[in-house]
Amino acid sequence: MTSNAVAVPGAAASPAQVDRTLLSGARRIVVKVGSSSLTSIKGGISEEALTGLADALSHKRNSGTEIILVSSGAIAAGLAPLGLPKRPRDLATQQAAASVGQGLLMARYTQAFGAHGVTVSQVLLTADDFMRRSQHTNAFRALDRLLNLGVVPVVNENDTVATHEIRFGDNDRLAALVAHLVRADALVLLSDVDSLYDGPPSHGAKRIAHVAGPHDLEGVSIGRAGKAGVGTGGMLTKVEAASIAAGSGIHALVTSTSNAAAALAGEDVGTWFSVNGSRKPIRLLWLAHLASVEGTLVLDDGAVKAVRDRHTSLLPAGISAVSGDFEAGDAVEMVSADGTVIARGLVNYSAAELPQMLGRSTKELGRSMGRGYDREVVHVDDLVLV
């Protein structure tokens, strides 16, 4: 599909055209906006950009669609008050800027949405909130109740307390997980670029209007964070987030913040990612895309077939080698003898315990090492194929 495609009377609409109409009548949409879209040339948050976004989202909310806004910008908003000329590199100063900026950002959102009679709330999340069942259940309940009350939750990563080990790294992937968590109909990722292109737009590249699956992105060069220096994402993380959403049953759109109103009306703007997979448990989505891998388990041919083809748990008898420094409960990769990654999972034993268990049956281990050593190394419920 090209950007100048038109509908012919009596002809079948393209999949992208059909899918886009979902946005005009969607029940629940997650919208993510990046720091670069909210930042003014002089620094700090642009009142014009924030107000324009709030206008578009308020109109959609007042027409009956539930909206969750995942917003970057807290660190950018905190730079000027702290006298910082650019985004700091060290985590402690980023946390300080976020702590100052988050309140300023929410005050501006409260005023902008309030002009339309829309109430907003602040919800700060960390990756840990998606790793533990009790926490992501509570997060869902809180967000669902806010939406039922007509509120627009404004979600951000809790930068002030998040450590390097449990950070999302960018709000694009956070938005994909939030969309999955709240069972949204669609995810809209807004930035300062109007669409995904098949190369640098300045070199005459063409807009990619529709992505039906990973094959549509083969050979496409995708850019990283822009020149503004206030964000952490860029088009690459937006494509990754859109692909995560589409692969887990949620349509996604990547476009510019100036196109927000047109996008939410279902118009032909941006790049549309059609659903190409089914919904998955939120924990497995985190494991596949966000978990910090602490080690590697090398599987023999039999274990590769059991895990990959029969979707079974991984037993110690099928492991031929172990590398890394991990504890029980950490994420590890499972690879074949040639190094091909087969799956990721949460391991039940530490790197110190596993070497003496390799190649042995669970019954034998239970007899020789005692109770607790007759379990799977990675249970099928804590395992995801990649």
**Number of strand segments:** 15
Structural class per helix/strand content?
A: alpha/beta
Q: What proportion of the residues is helical, as a percent range? A: 25-40%
The SSE order reads HEHHEHHEHHEHEEEEHEHEHEHEEEHE
Overall pLDDT confidence: 85
- The radius of gyration over CA amounts to 23 Å
Beta content = 15-25%
- Biggest sheet features: 8 strands, mixed
**Poorly predicted ranges:** 1-13, 225-233
> Helix count, per DSSP?
13
Q: What is the strand arrangement across the widest sheet?
A: 3-4-2-1-5-9-10-8
Q: Which shape, going by the Cα principal axes? A: globular
State the distance separating the first and last CA atoms.
29 Å
Q: Mind sketching the topology for me?
A:
Blueprint: H1 15-24, E1 28-33, H2 35-38, H3 47-62, E2 66-71, H4 74-79, H5 91-114, E3 120-125, H6 128-131, H7 133-148, E4 152-157, H8 171-181, E5 186-191, E6 196-197, E7 207-208, E8 210-211, H9 235-247, E9 251-256, H10 260-264, E10 271-273, H11 282-289, E11 293-299, H12 301-308, E12 319-324, E13 331-335, E14 341-346, H13 362-369, E15 383-385
Parallel strand pairs: 1-2, 1-5, 2-4, 3-4, 5-9, 8-10, 11-13
Antiparallel strand pairs: 6-7, 9-10, 11-12, 13-14, 14-15
Helix pairs in contact: 3-5, 8-9, 8-11
